Amino acid sequence: MGENAATKNNQHHQVFDVSIDVLAQNGSKCFDDDGRLKRSGTLWTASAHIITAVIGSGVLSLAWAIAQLGWIAGPTVMFLFSFVGFYCSSLLADCYRTGDPVSGNRNYTYMDAVRSILGGAKFKACGFIQYLNLFGIAVGYTIAASISMTAIKRSNCFHASGDKNPCHMSTTPYMLLFGITEIVFSQIPDFDQIWWLSIVAAVMSFTYSSIGLALGIAKVAARGTLRGSLTGISMGADVTQTQKMWRSFQALGNIAFAYSFSVILIEIQDTVKSPPSESKTMKKATFISVSVTTIFYMLCGCMGYAAFGDLAPGNLLTGFGFYHPYWLLDIANAAIVIHLVGAYQVFCQPIFAFVEKKAAKKWPESGFITKEFPIPIPGLGSFNLNLFRLVWRTMFVMLTTIISMLLPFFNDVVGLLGALGFWPLTVYFPVEMYIKQRRIPKWSTRWMCLQMLSISCLIISIAAAAGSVAGVALDLKSYKPFKATA
């Protein structure tokens, strides 16, 4: 995808080289220096985009993460992750243009930036990690959606039985239902045709996060005391020292997942107008959005921990820490499902586009791959059906659904995704691009500090991945595939 985009961009520059110069000389206000229509994004639109992209289902596991670390380490670790996320995002903002930060060539995507600044093997490694991470997110969203659908049915079952029936049920049918829904939506060809789905998803994410926060505050207010301890879950008959260590490591992954947003920042920066320079606007937008997000995360995580203490569930709205009001829980979980339907498509579209562009480039004469068949839809015009898109995207959704059924562990998957994505995409590549872009001398004080930051985050990511894998291994001991109960 990045390679094709870069090729298109080069072609675009060739076409507009002369006209850009003329427009600049005439002081035209219609086009930017790359020949595109003037960008209109502002500090506030960029901040809104980042906040919308960051706040998602990962917020629901933060109460559990703080419970593993305690009142001292939990908020401290969350603050440190927010600082690292902000700092590395600031470095990345300087990589939007290659060379001069004001007049250098633009990089339209994260992959374009890695390709133009680092190139070679690092570009390929970045692509592999990015697409693997997106695939993992698709699996995680399938798991989360099925758990929320099950939670709706369970809450109504509890209500009908007067909270006496445990209402155990399988998540497998709901994973299949979510998969079928995604097969249908996956046939929407491009990003520009799912903007409405993104808006709905963003509204839903704020809805369920706010409900979770409100329920936590209400529970603490009703009890009049704060639960939890300074050091987190204490060791006892149910938690050994080794388990506590692995859980603490996994908690790092859960928090890291909440702050793994750098991969979409270049795309957001490409919407910002100038002057002032895009990097200045983006740094301010990142500071505002990370501050708002961190406050929201702190409130949700800390109030969830204060409400349940050591018993904080892995998913605040589906772990049944809350039972009442059941109708509000139904609304929250329905919002989660709607959000994840849209978010699944947003995160999978880059994979879809990459595979389809590669196939079209390799077999341009194949009707199976390139031909579109218009299908009339009464009242909605026509829909262009592509057989390759139908077959390939259906197989992709089926694969993510099957893996979700085999490993339906929301908390563990979130921790693993955070561990695998945070260091390379949020820290390593931005640091390496910044060093090369600014030509920072090797072994200089600044170079050493940046490398120490990267190595420290690598160690944390390895520990978080190990904790999440240990969590999966522990869950698999008592799990029977396709017969899981909630």
Automatic annotation (TrEMBL):
Subcellular location(s) per record: Cell membrane; Endomembrane system
Domain (Amino acid transporter transmembrane) ranges: 40-472
Ranges annotated as spanning the membrane: 43-66, 72-93, 131-152, 195-218, 287-308, 328-355, 390-410, 416-435, 447-474
Key words, A-Z: Amino-acid transport, Auxin signaling pathway, Cell membrane, Membrane, Symport, Transmembrane, Transmembrane helix, Transport
UniProt GO MF annotations: symporter activity
GO biological-process terms attached to the record: amino acid transport; auxin-activated signaling pathway
Membrane topology: Multi-pass membrane protein
Pfam families: Aa_trans
GO cellular component: endomembrane system; plasma membrane
Chief site of localization: membrane
Recorded family membership: Belongs to the amino acid/polyamine transporter 2 family. Amino acid/auxin permease (AAAP) (TC 2.A.18.2) subfamily.
General function of this protein: Carrier protein involved in proton-driven auxin influx. Mediates the formation of auxin gradient from developing leaves (site of auxin biosynthesis) to tips by contributing to the loading of auxin in vascular tissues and facilitating acropetal (base to tip) auxin transport within inner tissues of the root apex, and basipetal (tip to base) auxin transport within outer tissues of the root apex. May be involved in lateral roots and nodules formation.
Protein name: Amino acid transporter transmembrane domain-containing protein
Annotated source species: Quercus lobata
